[in-house]
Amino acid sequence: MNCSCNGNCSLTKCCDDYASVCEPKAVSCGFEEICQLAAGEYCCASKPSTGTQWILGCILPGEQCYGGVSMYCNGPEDCTGGDVCCGTLNAGLTQFTTMKCESPASCQYASGKRVMCYLNPSACPSGYVCKPWNAPQFSAYCGTP
Predict the structure, then answer these.
(1) pLDDT tens-digit series, residues 77-112
(2) Mean of the per-residue pLDDT values for the chain?
(3) CA-to-CA dists, residue 130 to 21, 22, 35, 115, 127, angstroms
(4) CA-CA distance, 9 to 49, in Å (whole number)?
(5) C-alpha to C-alpha distance for 116 and 133, rounded to whole angstroms
């Protein structure tokens, strides 16, 4: 199994099957860390009060992500039973507050929620396209064209 794209990734082109092969039930958390969802880990992305770069790290079971984005999924490969990876935006619609698996019916664009597509544009519902998002970085959501 080759899980490297040699840093040549873009949202629409990076080893077409990377997420499904290398990250099923796992969340990429920064450049080098992968959080194992089956082990109870998730990714916490927090932004310091100064600077533009997010700090990402895996959170172990029983620990909390204080003041950051709790990422329990980042795309469809992390969810089961027909659920989608759904990101909830803050009140100002400027950054995600959490990403978790939910039913498609509860992940509604009008409610400030977005289906997360990561590296899988086909995860987007009809009429939406996969768009990069930098709050936190390494995110992609289904938005209007």
Answers:
(1) 889 899 999 999 999 888 889 999 999 999 999 999
(2) 81
(3) 20, 20, 23, 9, 10
(4) 29
(5) 10
